[in-house]
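Q: Convert this sequence to structure tokens.
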Amino acid sequence: MPRWRRAERMDPLRDADWPEAVDDLRAGFAGRLNVYRVMAHHPDLLRAFAGLRGHVVQNTALGPERAEVVILRLAHRLGSAYEWAHHVVRGRRAGLSDARIRTLRGDPEAMAASDAALARAVDALVDHHKLTDAQAQAVGGPKAVLDLIATVGMYLTLGFIVESFATPVDDDVAAELASAPLD
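A:
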């Protein structure tokens, strides 16, 4: 049986190689992060992804702090250094302390109750692809539950991209973490 081989390396696209079909996205979110510069190899996908990304990042019923808890837990579960690094920075900006961020890599029993509920929900989605009624209730109302599921799904996709193509952490994030490391 033939194996899939990476026909071409999908490095983040440079501005000079940016597809005209998504030129309007380059000045915004897509041009700022290497993961979206990789996704720009498929302009139709990047365009379609933009709406979900806008909701999950800017309008989630979870709120910015809880969303970062979800994303950091998922980054840990995926073993994604790219997503972990980016969301340590974003998590700090959302108000998470370094001590709180560090707990998201461990046992939910050692976390604050609100973080533990979110971590258990992420773990359930990763491990069992569904939430129990109790897990959903611990997350909050229907909008929060649906946004948690959408967030996990979106960041799974991003995690698959960065891991499949060894996408480098963006320079500004690497510099920020070098000047203020988590550990």
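The chain is about 65% helix and 0% strand.
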